[in-house]
Here is the input.
Amino acid sequence: MIAGLSKAVNLYLAPVLSLTALLLALFAYLAPTVLLHTQVALLVVSPSLSLTQPGATQGVDGPSVFFGALGSCARPNNEASVNCTAPMINPTYDLSVLPGDAPDLLSAPTATTPAFIAVSLAFTITFFLLFSLMSFRGSMGKFGATFEKPLMHRVTAWIGLLGFMIGLTSFLVIRMWFGKAVEDFNDDIARAGSGAPQLIAATSNGFIMVWVAYAFYAVPLVSSLANLHMKSASDSGKA
Here is the structure.
């Protein structure tokens, strides 16, 4: 039973989790400028009374801005259409819908961070393809023998590890950047009191998608590293 479960994890679950991790990380990276304009973002500035009138329960209409790694989308009120900037590695966020007295503290991280995420996604795509081919090598006939070689196991494991480390580190850098921006923005609004813009900033669901993606990514990565270890041990025993 244990052997069957282990085979199922390596053959079916791990590739599915690898694909899911890739899609989640890709959506979090491309949103909101390319897709999911108002559904997914890394940071959101939205209308709220919670900072200017603590304890107020009524809703408020106003401008919203949705920030991502490649740009931003904005709308002047809840019913208006959304306008997005062109996706760029070094984006300039469109804050024109915010009132003039809103804190000017929301800037994009350095261009190297989105670029590193793009590199990590390229590694992740390559890892997914190699890992999937390696998982199903038994049913690919003579072509599958290529993936029995220790070099292929080593290359796949290294590509997966690089994609994981570069991507997770880059998203952590953006999380710290946006976390500080949110704190400073909200502190300025709160200090200004009732005369301040009725806005609040918060990190958003894009980061939740990222953390889930890399939790899923860890499963095929550990499986790949374990396969590499077993293959190395087997080859050493034969020697």
About this structure: DSSP finds four helices and five strands in the chain. The mean pLDDT is 84. Residues 1-232 form a domain with the Butyryl-CoA Dehydrogenase, subunit A; domain 3 fold (CATH 1.20.140.150). The chain has one domain: 1-232.
